[in-house]
Write a structure and sequence with these properties.
The complex is a heterodimer of chains A (270) and B (245). By secondary structure, chain A is of the alpha/beta class. Chain A has one domain: UDP N-Acetylglucosamine Acyltransferase, domain 1 (3 Solenoid), CATH 2.160.10.10. Helices cover 47% and strands 16% of the residues of chain A. Chain A is built from 10 helices and 17 strands. In chain A, a hairpin with a 3-residue loop joins strand 8 and strand 9. The N terminus and C terminus of chain A are likely disordered. Chain B has a single domain, classed as Hexapeptide repeat proteins (UDP N-Acetylglucosamine Acyltransferase, domain 1), CATH 2.160.10. Helix content of chain B is 38%, strand content 17%. Chain B is built from 4 helices and 15 strands. The termini of chain B are far apart. The N terminus of chain B is likely disordered. The chains are: A alpha/beta (270), B alpha/beta (245).
Chain lengths: 270, 245
Amino acid sequence: MTGESKNNEELHFKISDLNLGIYIPIHFFIVLTPIYPVFYLLLIYLKVFNYNLQIGLIFLPLVILGLTFLYIVLVVYLTKFILVLSHWRSKPREGENMERDFNSRLVFHYHLRGFVKKFPLWLILRSPFHFLVPWMLKTFGLYSIGKNVLIYDSWIGLEFIYLEDNTIVGIGSVLSSHLVDGMNRLTIKKIKLGKNSQLGHDVLLAPGVELGEYTIIRSRAGVPKLEKLKAATVYKSGFDNSLYKRDVKGTKILRSRLEMIRKNGISKAT
Amino acid sequence: MASAKPPSVNLGPITTNNLFYSKYIIIYILEIWLAAIPTVFWGYICYLNLVIYWWSWFLLPLYILEIYWMFILLTAWIAKIFLVIVCKIYPPREGVFKINETKDYFYWNLRTFIRSLPFTFMRYSAFPWLDFVVYNFLSGSKFNKCGMSSVMYDGWIDTEFIETGNNCMIGLGSIVLSHYIDGDLFILKKVKLHDGAIVGAKAIVMPGTEIGEHTTLGAASLTEIDQKLEPYSIYMGMPARKLKK
């Protein structure tokens, strides 16, 4: 009991160290400033109603759509501006078991980056343009998404994630590029998915995991941190018994293809 | 504390996929625009009513709800028109296909993309439990039949080749899939939930599964492709095995 209360006190003390005096003005800056140009443009459009009511009403939805798009773009670039300032003060870097000191510059800017990216993300997901998320993450930097990447609804870290061409991330998977080890240690490491690799549903990747090309991870598996997985292999969780024992039409083809890749090497198989 | 939480992309249970190809954006804008034009005109009539009759201010909440629902149902109608055209060009079919060799994968993407907008609006509306309306309406009697008393909105559920009976329950965060991508294979098979079937929280139902009447699939379990679960029994595990009858 005593230990718990002590920990709680410590935690409370540390959370109060988060500098809300800086966070909240930044939040208001990002949310409110783009409203002015957008609202001004809308006022200009409303003058059309004086000339022709029908045309004004017909094009009103398109104009509102365009203005929401403009608002999103402005918010993303304002956030990018703040991120550039933050990166200039303290460059985001990877590391294992770094000290999670709330007064240090590294941890402060790590929290700031996470905080600042929240609003544009929320905005895009609530707007009709939810497919802009990959573009947003790429403009923020420390992120790469290749061609034909298929991301289902999942929890993906906002920095240090590198997805190469033709990768698939399944529903509800977690790709966490940072980890709080105990209360006082912090690990930030990049996650990399090689070409044509696939994650099943509910897969969990800890920081530092790197997948080789053509690797498949079956549903509901977890990978511990700093693990490098081989290319062209199928991984599954320990609880997953014989998911593919049943001969589904087509799975045999997949097995033979993987064997071929193992024999001939990846470059020839493609 | 917002900043102390892990930074994450939480897309939540909207529809199962978040695919996007830039060439489809015209369809997307057309869907919104065509649905919004009648809504805007109706909104203007409501506005005139408010200006002329003072008592119509009491009807303001009703007007707002009406406009909102009109917009959602109109997007569903326009999506339906697009779907009919796409299904005429390439009729959807079940089976195991190669992604690069057949066109099934491309047209499946197109269909789910067309459906995504009404589904998103419905799931984000104040009445997410009414999503069976969109399920039944957008798929036609050929693909989807969803019972009115089923609870579907808590999980990730595919938008086509789903058939549920009455009083089905799909648990929190569970995943019901009628498609699966494995290597370069694309599997598309119908999922059937009979009356009173229960899918536990966080369970994964793979394509081709048939869950019998009043059968329970336990929490965090996983079914195989093409698995048939017998009626009146309990299944658990990865893959799901019969626990008791």
